[in-house]
Amino acid sequence: MDKKELKKIVGDVRKQNSIFSDKSFLDNLAVPNSIIGRENESKKLVKFLLSYEKGLVVPLVSIYGRSGSGKSTIVQFVCKNLDVNFCYVNLRKAKTVFGCINLILSELGHENLKNAQGMNNAFVILEKLIIQMLDKSGNSLFVLCLDEFDTLFYDKRGKPSDFVYKLVVLVEKLRALKKHMCIITISNKVLSEFNLDDRVISRIGTSEIYFDSYSQSDVLKIIRNRAKKSFLEKIDDDVLQYCANISSEEHGDARRAIDLLRTSGEIAGIENKKISKKHIDEAVSQLQKNQITTIISGGSYHFRLACAALSRLTYVNDEGWHSTSELFKQYQKIVSSETRQISYRRFSEMLVELVNSGIAVSKTESKGRHGYGSQFKLTVDPDLIGHSCFTDWWTSVVESKKKKDDALRSVKALKSMSFGKRHSRFGNLYRNLGL
Ligand SMILES: Nc1ncnc2c1ncn2[C@@H]1O[C@H](COP(=O)(O)OP(=O)(O)OP(=O)(O)O)[C@@H](O)[C@H]1O
Ligand SMILES: [Mg+2]
């Protein structure tokens, strides 16, 4: 790249940003200064937390609900505005249970520990830090917020349930010192879906707050408010309505709506135009493309093969649902001969990862006397996935399907000209195509 090219990039980015007055209101990671609605959920949380003022706080509150329903935002907004010490960590940043304790320690200003220093030692340090913090601030409650709590359970070797048990024991220890601690877990799943052992379950009780998905009109209120603050010119209400509709197609997702608004603004900025529905449509496909590329480029070679296997079967057969065994056979066909294949069991786990990443959905189906089996279906265009996985290989898949489709079309045309299957010259062709 030379200076001229860089200058062009700078110009394009400035153009992209030209229609915004303040983009920070479209930042999904920042906690906003004001919340639209969600009074009931906030009230429930405040009630759980403030019971420490009367000497008893529940050890653990579980917050759960669909993506983009405001869980992370509302918890942070409430905790930041109460007289409590609050530590928020997103466990997605930690790959192991030990990584999780390190994340908490580093949020509290402590350096990272090595695995060899052990979990018990880490908890001794955590206890000291909490006591110091509460003494310094004069507060009596420490709130530990574990966002994306489910990621903890991916590390089966790290004994996640033991880790939660240790946290709950810490709550009890602090209580004996007349200091209070409350753990808030945030997840898309309800707490009973996690593999927590009885020692934990009997201690934590059932303090849960469910965040129902937003309705279309809730999403509209949220983006109307953001649009007013972040764009130079007023955005037409029917455009905002369209954006809210798209973001509520599956379930009311405020994050998706804000992302769409920001991205369509950037696209409109480049064209030097006001945001229209067309820009929202373009933003939808751009965001989907970005999301898929991020997921696939971050996945292992075998993960990409699992994606490729499902894409190929979907594309070639024009069919949605595919069983694990069908997909495993397909995987075996496309895996490189120099690579060691993964086992059927590991491959099934890979398919679950695919579902977790949102690329596919699954269902369980009866196989008669053979019990039950899982079926998988792509949620996005197979062409997009195939390309992102292995571009050259996908091009050959597309070409061979095209050839087959062309041949089929020719045969159908011949059939309609009443050559029929019996015609000897075409007998082989019919047989080759399995007709
Ligand atoms: N009630 C609300 N008022 C204002 N903004 C909101 C509200 N709810 C959500 N938002 C905004 O929507 C976006 C998504 O919210 P948030 O990240 O809290 O969702 P989430 O439920 O934690 O989703 P996930 O499960 O995917 O983590 C954020 O930008 C947030 O600021
Ligand atoms: Mg969240």
Explain how this protein is built.
The protein has 435 residues and is of the alpha/beta class. It folds into 4 domains: 155 residues, Rossmann fold, CATH 3.40.50.300; 81 residues, Helicase, Ruva Protein, domain 3 (Orthogonal Bundle); 84 residues, Orthogonal Bundle (Arc Repressor Mutant, subunit A); 40 residues. 55% of the residues lie in helices and 11% in strands. It has 17 helices and 8 strands. Strands 2-3-4-1-5 form a 5-stranded parallel β-sheet, sandwiched between helices. Helix 6 links the parallel strand 3 and strand 4. Helix 12 packs across helix 14. It is globular, with a radius of gyration of 27 Å. The mean pLDDT is 89. The chain binds adenosine-5'-triphosphate (ATP) and magnesium ion. Adenosine-5'-triphosphate (ATP) binds next to helix 3 and helix 10.
Helices, strands, pairings?
Layout: H1 3-16, H2 39-50, E1 60-65, H3 71-80, E2 85-90, H4 97-107, H5 119-137, E3 141-147, H6 160-176, E4 180-187, H7 198-204, E5 208-211, H8 216-230, H9 237-247, H10 254-270, H11 277-298, H12 301-317, E6 322-323, H13 324-334, H14 344-356, E7 360-366, E8 372-378, H15 382-389, H16 391-416, H17 424-432
Parallel strand pairs: 1-4, 1-5, 2-3, 3-4
Antiparallel strand pairs: 6-8, 7-8
Helix pairs in contact: 1-10, 2-3, 4-5, 5-6, 6-7, 8-9, 8-10, 9-10, 10-11, 11-15, 12-13, 12-14, 12-15, 12-16, 15-16
The structure holds adenosine-5'-triphosphate and magnesium ion (MG).
